[in-house]
Design a protein that fits this description.
Blueprint (H helix, E strand, L loop, with lengths): L6 H13 L1 H10 L8 H14 L5 E10 L5 E9 L1 H15 L29 H18 L4 E6 L9 H15 L3 H17 L12 H10 L1 H10 L4 E4 L2 E6 L1 H17 L10 E4 H4 L15 H14 L4 H10 L10 H5 L3 H9 L2 H5 L6 H23 L7 H21 L5 H9 L5 H12 L9 H14 L4 E2 L7 H12 L4 E2 L10 H7 L14 H9 L7 H5 L12 H8 L2
Parallel strand pairs: 7-8
Antiparallel strand pairs: 1-2, 3-5, 3-6, 4-5
Helix pairs in contact: 1-2, 1-4, 2-4, 3-4, 3-7, 6-7, 6-8, 9-10, 12-17, 17-18, 18-20, 18-26, 19-20, 20-21, 21-22, 21-26, 22-23
Length: 576
């Protein structure tokens, strides 16, 4: 019997499944080894290998940021670590979470919160929990200041502006204050040296992409957070590089000057063109903006019911998939059957009973009830979408920010629920809204079964759409005359999911390692000959089998803690 995965293995699988599908595949192949699923492997073997290898090895991808008015695209450059480094940095973040002082976020910071001891949902606590808590705390602060103001500001090019030497100095100071074990200090320093070496052409900045960078970013701003809490008690809130200051307007402008001065100390700067002020009474109009999933019909109950059915009756996956397709939904359920067989019935039931959310949903929904819930959600999100899009072009500042977030939320859910015949008109409406261009491209691809435009929306955009596109069940048109790096990477993500492409009329595609690996094309096994390269390492982990395993891996659960994946939700959050 294969060893049951321990906490760190489950965390990295869940984290990278929603962040980077290529890294997720690499991690899954790495964890095929019974030894590698143990926490001890991550904290000892993987750490030792990373510290002992001073050669940086990262895969550079391009994530869509925005499409400008002239039609050109702006991307974020993301660096993905190898699976061994992913396991090692998960062990490092976990060790930092055990420290009583020096490493945890201040109460005013809600992003990338360190995980609780047995939480397997990700390397950090889930995005939306922190975001929702910040919203709740801002509501309370606005109520305490009924005649006050909320001032928004953010940092210009936050992650790409964090200098390696500054991060190294702060890492040393924080680890000393926290009394972090020597192996963890050494690993963090080793990772920072690799980041600097990989970015030598760009003034030695830390990399955007590795999970350790998120921890570093919070540490770099630790003094800023402490000073701002003292300057504005109960009125300072930060999520990543997004600040909300609440209080009397005169004090807020003084506090903003203090904030700018503190950021100067770490060579960071507020964005000169972003930010706005809104009265607290006006801000409270959006108090209920994030209460969607506590209402009925509930997306959380819909998804939870499907997962509950798959865990209790793993043999029903075929019937559930058929019912979802017949209802016009684009959802691909995970296959938990192999995982369930590896655990005894008693241990499985005890594990579920410890889960409070499982106990709350103890009454099992039938397939018919699940489909009825999905149809009710379709109509509900359709109505909310249509309400949110009306008049949005004329909005500015806080009102526009609120409405865009709501529209993303509803549009993201409708990707899985809406009838295909409606996507064409919806895509045209969204195309007129700059912040919604990615969603417009996804809707257009779903309406036309043509991904020729979508592949230019970066790895994150294509990954978000891949599951619903695959659920359509037929080949997709992909015609390209200019295979840029971005287009090649987008195409590779579709191939990794097992999506068939009709490329008649396209120019020939160059033999890039990512394309070869994701499609497991001729020569894929030869990638392993260059075992020092990123895709060489992944090919070694995959094995020299002629049969590509990617789609099967993506459709199969790694552990009973795996959640059903809905990448459009994650894209909506990342783009907020």
């Amino acid at each position: 019997m294969k060893a049951v995965p321990e906490t760190l293995a489950v965390r990295v699988v869940n984290e990278w499944r929603r962040y980077d599908i290529v890294a997720h595949l690499g991690v899954r192949y790495y964890l095929d080894s019974t030894c590698a699923v143990r926490d001890r492997w991550a904290s000892e073997v993987a750490v030792r290998q990373v510290v002992g290898d001073n050669r940086p090895c990262y895969h550079e991808t391009f994530h869509f940021k925005e499409r400008k008015q002239d039609g050109s695209f702006e991307y974020r450059c993301i660096h993905t670590p190898t699976p061994n480094e992913i396991l090692a940095e998960a062990a490092l973040v976990h060790q930092c979470s055990l420290m009583q002082h020096g490493m945890r976020n201040a109460n005013c910071v809600y992003s990338y919160q360190l995980p609780h001891s047995e939480d397997g949902r990700g390397i950090f606590q889930p995005y939306f929990e922190g975001f929702l808590q910040r919203h709740t705390d801002i509501v309370a602060a606005c109520r305490r200041n009924p005649k006050g103001t909320v001032l928004y500001a953010d940092i210009e090019r936050f992650y790409p502006s964090i200098k390696s030497d500054i991060a190294m100095r702060i890492w040393g100071d924080c680890t000393h204050d926290a009394d972090l074990p020597e192996w963890a200090r050494e690993l963090g320093s080793s990772l920072l040296e690799k980041y600097a070496a990989a970015e030598k052409a760009q003034a030695e900045q830390v990399l955007t992409g590795p999970m350790f960078t998120h921890l570093l970013a919070n540490l770099v701003l630790k003094r800023v957070d402490d000073v701002m809490q003292d300057a504005l008690p109960g009125g300072y809130f930060r999520y990543v590089d997004d600040f909300a200051l609440i209080g009397d307007l005169t004090k807020l402008r003084q506090a903003k000057a203090i904030l700018a001065n503190e950021l100067d100390h770490v060579e960071l700067h507020l964005h000169p063109k972003k930010g706005f002020e809104v009265p607290t009474a006006h801000w409270l109009h959006g108090e209920g903006d994030f209460g969607d999933d506590v209402k009925s019909p509930s997306w959380k109950v819909f998804v939870g019911s499907m997962r509950q059915m798959l865990l209790r009756r793993p043999d029903c996956i075929g019937a559930l998939t058929d019912q979802l397709r017949d209802a016009g939904f684009r959802i691909m359920p995970l296959d938990y059957s192999a995982i369930i067989k590896e655990r005894s019935y008693l241990s499985r039931m005890l594990r579920f009973w410890r889960d409070k959310s499982w106990r709350r949903m103890m009454r099992q929904q039938t397939l018919q009830e699940i489909m009825a819930l999905g149809l009710a959600l379709r109509q509900r999100y359709r109505d909310m979408y249509e309400s949110a899009i009306v008049g949005i072009a004329d909005l500015h500042g806080y009102e526009r920010k609120r409405r865009i977030h709501a529209l993303r939320h509803y549009a993201g859910r409708l990707v899985y629920l809406e009838e295909s015949s409606r996507f064409g008109a919806m895509a045209k409406s969204l195309e007129a809204i700059q912040e919604m261009h990615l969603f417009a491209a996804v809707y257009d691809a779903l309406a036309t079964a043509d991904v020729s435009k979508l592949i230019y929306y970066g790895v994150n955009g294509v990954q978000a759409a891949a599951q619903p596109l695959k659920a359509m069940g037929h080949p997709l048109r992909c015609s390209c005359q200019n295979w840029s790096k971005v287009a090649l990477q987008g195409r590779a993500i579709l191939l990794a999911h097992g999506i068939r492409l009709d490329e008649r009329g396209s120019t020939s595609v160059s033999a890039h390692p990512m394309t070869i690996f994701c499609g497991w094309l001729d020569g894929a096994s030869n990638l392993a000959a260059n075992h020092a390269s990123f895709f060489g390492r992944l090919a070694c982990l995959h094995g020299r089998d002629d049969e590509r395993r990617h789609a099967a891996i993506l459709g199969t659960a790694f552990d009973i803690d795996d959640n059903l994946a809905f990448e459009m939700d994650d894209i909506m959050h990342q783009s907020s």
